Amino acid sequence: MLPRPISDAGFYHLEAGPGFPKGLKDSMPAIFWAIPSKIHSNSCDNAITILQGSPVAGPHTHKFILISMDSDGKARIHFDIAGTIEGILLEHYHDGLQPTIEMRLPFNYSRIPPWIKGIARFFRTSNMVHEPAVDFPSDRHPEVVDWLRNVADWTQAPSTVRSRSFSWPNGCKAALTISHDVDTDWIFNNAGWIDRICDLEEHFGLQGAWYCVPVYSQSKTAIAGIERLVSRGCEIGCHGYNHDAKWPLLSGQRFEDRAKAVQVFRDRWKVRGFRSEWLWRTPPFLLTIARLFDYDTSVPTVSSFFTSECRNGCGTYFPYVTHGNMIELPLTLPMDDDVHASGLGLEEFWRLQVERAMRIIDSGGLVMLSLHVQPHQAANNATLQAVEKAIGELVAVPGLWIARPDRIADWVRSQLSMEHTGCTHECD
Q: I need a labelling partner for 126 at 20 to 30 A (CA). Which of 46, 167, 237, 390 fits?
């Protein structure tokens, strides 16, 4: 008879024993979060413990069996692995993102001139504490969900739509896409940068998504800019409402007014994808977005910058089904704007971006490059040179599926719904 299960979810230090596969041990995170409805302490009859966990904090000081091996060589899981995967993907392991200083301002921070933002960012970053109380997901092993899926496959655990893996089209080993956050109307008022950026990306076979802010997309100049992007084969996405990042914090009529305005923008440009302002998200907000869009791309694999005092993120390099049966394309790489918080120079930051992307490719995941098209971010000569070098290194990797985000979302839905639509793309 198995011992009494622990009553609530929490963070655990992992410790592998003899019999745990070396490949899983080598990629094992130091800390992970689990739903312990089936976690048991002490020992199981006629079984050897091969993975155990000890609580990171709390009253429990002894270790718990996570996986055991029966005398017949069958591995048995003693925690809710499917529920744990879902809980990490949907970010149940933290109490919610905390509003930043900028979100509390009585005016729209995004309208401040770039040079003032730069000064404010310098002082804000120098006073930020980036290390959360619990290092989960860890920057060193951010892909904890992918590790858990491999554990589930090895133990032959029952799968769910969120716990099972899928493959890329035509035998491709990984996917690559690029996206752009159009936070203001600057790019439309400096339209030469549209063609310059598109030319660079098309040279490498990329056609990305441009997530535009509805409020800043209504002028004749903005409309002409969006039409130019469409003519270049780019996808148009929605980037919140007015980039004050307050929409998810609103309620009642003020919330609904923004939803209606966003729907008008969606209908005009046949928009299918959404990215929230400042990557701000809550479960109710994502449920609203799911009623308006086919996919979202607001959730990082791992992030501790600007969005919360706690670590946050979905812990996977792969797209998945999020709230409201919507496809989530995670931000698997830090966004270009993180260079300011990292304290690194441009060359070093993008060198590390390529290293991270290569790890994602090796794991078979989605590489999501993200640029902000403003002069203090990506729309300057030095940054574009660094980006060009990075993209060149990535597209040289054979076997990549290079596609727009909306097409990746379509493929993921067909795979996870098991309704295959086929694909004509051929990998190198």
A: 390
Decide which of 338 and 310 is more confident. 338
According to the model, what pLDDT value does residue 133 have? 66
CATH number of the domain that 384 lies in?
A: 3.20.20.370
Tell which residue, 194, 178, 244, has the closest CA to residue 374. 194
CA distance readout (Å), 411 to 198, 401, 422? 24, 11, 8
Closest CA to 311 of 157, 87, 137, 84: 137
Q: In this structure, are 289 and 186 located in the same domain?
A: yes
Helix axes 381-395, 192-203, angle to 10 degrees: 20
Instruction: Give pLDDT tens digits for 71-82.
Output: 888 998 988 899
Q: Does residue 26 register a pLDDT over 90?
A: yes
Question: Could you tell me the pTM of the whole model?
Answer: 0.90
Q: Widest CA span of the chain, in angstroms?
A: 74
* Residue 3 within any structural domain of the chain: no
Contact 15, 63 (CB under 8 A): yes
Does 17 fall in a domain?
A: yes
Q: How many domains does the chain have?
A: 2
Provide the 3-class DSSP secondary structure of residue 402. strand
CA-based nearest residue to 138, from 319, 279, 11: 11
| Per-residue pLDDT reduced to its tens digit, 131-185 | 556 778 888 889 999 999 999 999 999 889 999 888 999 999 999 999 999 999 9
Report whether pLDDT(307) > 70.
no
From the list 149, 152, 147, the residue with the least C-alpha distance to 137 is 147
Task: From residue 185, give the alpha-carbon distance in Å to each of 118, 190, 256.
Answer: 18, 9, 24
| Residue 187 and residue 68 share a domain | no
Say yes or no: 23 and 169 in one domain.
no
Distance, in Å, from the CA atom of 101 to the CA atom of 348, rounded to the nearest integer, reads: 29
Range(s) of the domain holding residue 279: 118-129+148-416
Do residues 63 and 166 both lie within one domain?
A: no
| 53 and 155 part of one domain | no
